[in-house]
Amino acid sequence: TTTTTTTTNTTRELVFIRGLSGTGKSALVKAFCVRNSRQTTANDRTIAMVQGKFDCFLRDEPFSAWTDALQALIYHLHSTPRVEEWQQFRQHVRQLLADDEIDLLTRMIPNLKTVVGATASGDAATTKEQVDNPTTHAETSNTININTPLSRMSSGDLSSNSNNHNNNNNNNNNSILSEGNSQRIKHVFRKFFRTLTALEPLVIVLDDFHWADPASLELLEALMNDRENSRIMFVACYRSDEAQNLRTLRDHLQRTPTAGSHMTDLETDNLSLEHTHTIVRTLLSMDMDDSPEHLEKTLQLARLCHRRTLGNCFFLLQYLIMLKEESFLKFNLGLFCWRWDLQRIEDETAVTQNVVNIVSARLVKLSPQLLRFLQLASCLGSLVHNRLLAVAWENGTVLGRSVFGDGRAQGAVEEPRQPLEKVLELARQGNFLEAHGADAHQWLHDKIQEAAVSSIGPDDDKVDKLKCQLGFILLHQLTEEELDRELFVVANLLASFRGAALATSDLFRRAAEKAKSVAGFQSAFRYATAGIALLPAGNSCWEKCFEQSLALYSVATEASGFLGRVDDLMHYSSAILDQPKCSIFDKLHAYFVLLEYLQNNGRAQEALDLGLQILANLGCTFPRNPVVQVVKTMRAVRKFKKDPPTQAVLRQLPPMTDQNALAIVKVIFRLQATLYYLKQIFLYAMASARCIELVLKHGLCDYGGCAFFDFGNIIAVVSNDLKYLSQWSEMAVLITKLVPSGYQESRIMFSVACGFMWSRPVHTLSKDYCKHGYQAGMKAGDTESAMWCFMHSIYFEFMAGKPLRILEENCHYYISHMKELKRTEAALLTGTLWRLILDLNRSPESSSYMTATIVDQVLSTLDVQSSDLAPYFGRAMENMLVAFRRDYVKGAELSIQRGNEFLGNFPHQPIGIWDLYLRGVCLFAAAAAAAKPGQKRRYLRHGRKLLATIQKWQSQGNLNVRHHAALLTAEDLTSRGKWDEAKQSYESAIVGASRGGFLHDAAIANERYAYSLLGGDAPRNIDSARFHFGEAKRLYVEWGSMVLANDLEEISSMLLSREAMQTLG
User: Fold this and answer.
1) Alpha-carbon separation of residue 328 from 296, 334, 355 (angstroms)
2) Per the CB 3.0–4.6 Å rule, which of 304, 384, 623, 732 could disulfide with 380?
């Protein structure tokens, strides 16, 4: 059965294939890959097809199938004969991805180093020979005596090899917290897939997706929602009875398809009797004989097979193989056909509902060496690198005696060990394993692997013992690079180990930190808790292995916070915070996790109290008395207003190295949003001033830039002079250039864009700051700031007069992206502008109700608990709409009713500039049309106040309000009867708006000038009015608002006709 969900301009395909185990999902995909492996596009470019498989026994490894598929793809790309394309791909990766992003990817995809070479922060590149012949490794001739019980082994025994590995993942208090790291990983993968699909179309097959980790599910959703990606198909196979989380994802993608995406849902089922009969006839080479006798004979066999296997495809094939191997099916060379005794099959074969039993029966009849090899391989996962198989097989004799003892029934190895290639060949011939690329093998079906595991022993003890022994051997014999690559495999093998060896606990620490580094928080939590369980009991773990305990508890704290495991979060964080041996710097990471948890769950006051407690522990205190806060804030304002730091001084500052100062600045950075939300403005100002003092005393740090902008904002408000905002914004930008960019850069970019709105052309702000800030935020994992950059970008573009069609498309994409990242307030505020754009851009036959419905449908799923900005933005958009629709009286009344609410609450929000300008247009236009003198004076009084504000902004250097001031000045002069001066101001407004590219402002200026030429006591000029009406209509059409152009056509025709009649009269 098939269902599809489609959007236009399809560029990303997602195919879900679901069904019960053994119904042919993987076989269908393999047939598809074989059939299309040599397909080419219209441009004669091949389609790359790679496959990855999730593993039931290695569920703790995040992104396992993704990394397997991508490693296979890199090998495929590296072997392409088109050298120019390969070099182009290398260059593209280098250009699009930063060094730290490449390092992150090469940690998950080791052979990617062959593409990009060495990075500034990474290791040397892997050689080409290692990719061309990845199975080449130095053979280790020694085997390990593991007859000693693991519980008796010392930590020195276990750590002899692991101590040689670099522990680069020690707890780092400057690391990005969990949510940011998760978003950073997805962003890096998005960028990497864009480079892949730029080279050639790509098909990624993800088998056994029902065993995917949560991070893999989120990655698939992120890639499908990436509008900038193209020419890519994902095929995800999963069992319909084991994938509740996957069904939720599938349903979500069906409900909210993004532009350029297409989803297909396929379902496989058991075979019917007719299909079973066809398969039986084909396998027995009797499909060419349609005689009734042969049809009846094969039908009876098919009916028996169908009854025993219920039509399960894999079960059916295994059942037929068993019949052949047990000689129930025999090939008669004399008759040259297959023969069987149906009654004998009926009587002597057992009825079983489990295919594993059939496969297990086959396994026990294999040669002892092949059985032992399959048992070892089954412990290593569904996809196993040949190097692991080589190490396991080299120690197979020792492992067999240790776990199984002697005897053929248990498969003990007595005869000389056969070479690895020989047993691999036997495993492939027996349809147990198949090659996967050049350096790995995978199980033909997970049920075969399951049967191999079950053949180890009737209980789990033998399986656990074998896994532990095998993990111990790998820990000792793998090289550093190999262990890092197979870290999750080794950790999972040792997961059942319950000894007291600290080196095993340290292995889990490494696995936990690696999983956390790639946003596999479910896996990180399991590894961390497994490592904690192996630590000495009670407080002695902190006495005997402090660093290891701190690292494990820190990862457990962060992972439990990300996963929403509140009880675990409190338990593991308390273990750190209540530990006397932990310094305040050791506790910072746990504090930050708790602070993030409180902030994300609407507990702002608790977050503030915790943040102030952390600062007090660092020796940084603030007064809680409001009067004292005001006094200290004004003192700081006067100090820095009189003697501000200069850019020359900042350039001379060294990097901040004082640990305490760095910690204080970082805590204040994380606390500022909470202070702003709680309207603790004076505490907010004091905290910013403290950061500036620390920067000037101890040196530059990446978190200092935000403090400079924040305090410049405070000085500008207190002084009512916008030059300070621009001055301190310049210093904030300089700090981001002088100090390596980090988590704060995105926030600085959208903040200074708002600041520069008052001193720089608005056209430059979206590209130079907002788009850059979005990229920086996504790279660092600061998706909140990245989405604020998106929101401000669309508002800047609207204010700059960008065509409405482009703005509408951007709004839809931006909001989808914001919803995906759960940044709902930014989506809500962008939606208010989107509604206005749709109203201005809608076709004449549609209604405003229809446009509002479109937006409401998109925003209906947003879960915004509170938003300070939303009501103010909503009323501002309403005021703008009535101004555009020429309902000037309503706009004037709204303007008077609203007063200075927007800029009064949000002094430097850029949209406040345009809101005030259009309110002024409404007030002066309403005054011109007012019949009552008192009403006219009222409108003019309020309009002139707004004009005075805009003129003050202009005098302070705001380049974006010159034509606003000119138009409102012209309106004011017209109201005073100063026609000649008004004419000059109108023309100045038109020229200024046109030269600046402000299509909408130029249209409004032309329209208002035309009205003045026909209205009141002004000298009439019908020809000039007709010209400016025409210019206004042309500009509205160019802007993309046909509804405004059509309405103006009706109004201007009526006015011009009336003037013409009066002239003739």
Assistant:
1) 18, 18, 18
2) 384
Q: Which of 489-493, 871-875, 1058-1062 has the lowest mean pLDDT?
A: 1058-1062
Q: Looking at residue 233, what DSSP letter applies? A: E
Token duo for residue 442: 């995978």
Secondary structure letter of residue 779 according to DSSP: H
Q: pTM for the full model? A: 0.77
Q: Is 740 left (phi over 0), alpha (psi -120 to 50) or beta?
A: beta
Query: pLDDT-derived band of residue 918, with 50, 70 and 90 as boundaries?
Result: very high
**Helices (H) and strands (E) in the chain — how many of each?**
53, 11
Secondary structure of residue 469 in the 3-state scheme: helix
Distances (CA, A) of 533 to 500, 537, 541, 998: 9, 8, 10, 65
Please list, in sequence order, all residues whose beta carbon lies within 8 angstroms of the beta carbon of residue 350, skipping any fewer than 6 positions away: 357
CA dist., res. 912 & res. 906, Å (int): 8
- Are 208 and 57 in contact by the 8 Å Cβ rule? The answer is no
**185 with 152: CB under 8 angstroms?**
no
At 145, the amino acid letter reads: N
What does each C-alpha distance from 309 to 242, 283, 451 come to in angstroms? 20, 16, 17
Ordered alpha helix ranges (H), 200-291: 214-224, 244-255, 273-283
Cα dihedral 838/843/849/853 (nearest 10) = -50
In this predicted structure, the answer to whether residue 1055 has a pLDDT above a threshold of 50 is yes
In the numeric block, which tokens belong to residue 885? 């629709």
Distance CA(535)–CA(549), nearest Å, equals 7
Q: What is the 3-state secondary structure (H, E, C) of 841-906?
A: HCCCCCCHHHHHHHHHHHHCCCCCCCCCHHHHHHHHHHHHHHHHCCCHHHHHHHHHHHCCHHHHHC
Query: Do residues 524 and 559 touch, judged by C-beta distance below 8 A?
Result: yes
**Amino acid identity at 913:** I
Helices 704-719 and 681-698: angle between axes, nearest 10 degrees: 130
Cα gap 970→1051, rounded to integer Å: 22
1022-1043 pLDDT, tens digit per residue, is 889 999 999 999 999 999 999 9
Q: Are 813 and 1016 in contact (CB under 8 A)?
A: no
pLDDT attached to residue 583:
94
Q: Which residues contact 86 (CB under 8 A, 6 or more apart)?
A: 77, 78, 80
Distance (Å, rounded) from C-alpha 787 to C-alpha 58?
35
* Alpha-carbon torsion (1031, 1037, 1042, 1044), positive or negative: negative
Who's near 638: CB < 8 A, 6+ residues apart?
none
417 burial class (0-12, 13-18, 19+ CB within 10 angstroms)? middle
Q: DSSP 3-state helix, strand, coil percentages of the chain (rounded to 5)? A: 65, 5, 25
**How many other β-carbons are positioned within 10 Å of the β-carbon of residue 82?**
14
Geometric angle at alpha carbon 988, from 986 and 993, rounded to 5°: 100
Place of tokens 């808790």: 529
